[in-house]
Amino acid sequence: MEVPISIISREIIKPSSPTPNHLRIHKFSRVDQINLDIAYPIILFYNSGAHKNSSSHHLKQSLSKILTHYYPFAGRVKDHFSVECDDYGVSFIEAHIATNISEALQNPHPLLLEQLMPYKPHELITTTQFNLAVQVSYFGCGGVAICVCFRHCIADAAAAANFIKSWSAVASRGDSNTDAIVKDVVFDFSSIFPPEDWSGLSITINSEEILKSSSTDIVFKRFVFDGSKMAALRETIGNRPTRFEAVFALMWKAVTSANTEGDVFVASIPVNLRRKMNPPISDQCMGNIFAVLIANWPLEETINYKDFVEKIRELSSLLNDDYIKKSFPNGWILRHMKNIDAGINDDTKSSRRRIFHISSCCGLPFYEADFGWGKPNWVTTLQAHNAGDNIFVSLADTCDGKGVEAWVAMSKQEMAKFEQDSQVIAYASFNQIA
Prior knowledge:
Blueprint: E1 5-13, E2 25-27, H1 30-34, E3 39-46, H2 52-66, E4 76-79, E5 82-84, E6 90-97, H3 101-106, H4 110-114, E7 132-139, E8 144-151, H5 157-173, H6 202-205, H7 207-210, E9 218-225, H8 227-237, H9 243-258, E10 264-272, E11 290-295, H10 305-316, H11 321-327, H12 332-342, E12 353-360, E13 378-380, E14 391-397, E15 404-411, H13 412-418, H14 422-427
Parallel strand pairs: 6-7, 10-12, 12-14
Antiparallel strand pairs: 1-6, 2-5, 3-8, 3-13, 4-5, 7-8, 9-15, 10-11, 14-15
């Protein structure tokens, strides 16, 4: 579904004050290094945006102010080890889209959403040096969509959410004292997670293959677990699962049960480490501060939802401060990535090994982003992937914070089985946003 969209203007927004010389080099941590260098888009929809001229001015002005604190976003990647914080600026695009915002909310088709982005979702950053790009799209009805595209080697989802929240706070308050809103967001995590030389590791060389245009066999769909259905699912599982645990358990069972080829699925689960460190790291800190849990559970061990949730919790409990600080600096990530790259897994040598990658933005403050027009009606991350033989799931909050939205990418054949699973039908829907 494509709708005519016209670009109104393109600008480069620089920090309102220069970055001090002693902060001009921002070092990558080991976790920053392992991320694919891709565009990570967040789109926020507002039914009643301000007049275009006034909103344009205060968005640019507030963005310039907040960049003085998040200065690596306004810099350029120097090499595989650092960012040069040279105040190069961020891309700021304004556009007019010839439809009403209700079209996007009632039928959030990926092709429509892609038109609201400065880059396509998960596009490799090869043609630009911008670490951050913004597109503000004005709908004919007066609504506004703000898409912020982050360079993933600079920030994870938690950092992205807190940047947007801080930017919106500056925009809505019109306060020149940004220190009162945000501080201490840039930290040298290379001291905790020292960088490594990844040369010779083919998984980094082949990154582009992962992100080539999806074939026609890949389907990308959105499933909604509203608040009431989510409460019912959690009650059915028992043992008070989180929303993430409940949806993950349901999807894992639906996917593995539908598999008739004898494939072995390995779950890949990114986990935010900010509050697992001692002392905890501020939620506002930018960077990639997460670990990826890898789980390989035989189907017969996870056929029961409750047992599955217990296994997730047991695995997650390993990620405490002591484990993180002992394992990460000693090359654990590099050894783990090499094992994935080499396909080392004694249990799967005779079977096709596939990745079930599930990430979650649930609980992050995207819906707190008030630029002066109220809180957003809908926020989507639209993490579109070329799934290939693998399966990608991206979870986010519903606007009331009680349910979960899931974007799912898998083959046409598997999607046909997945969406007919009795539990998926019982708890998920294709409800419109508003």
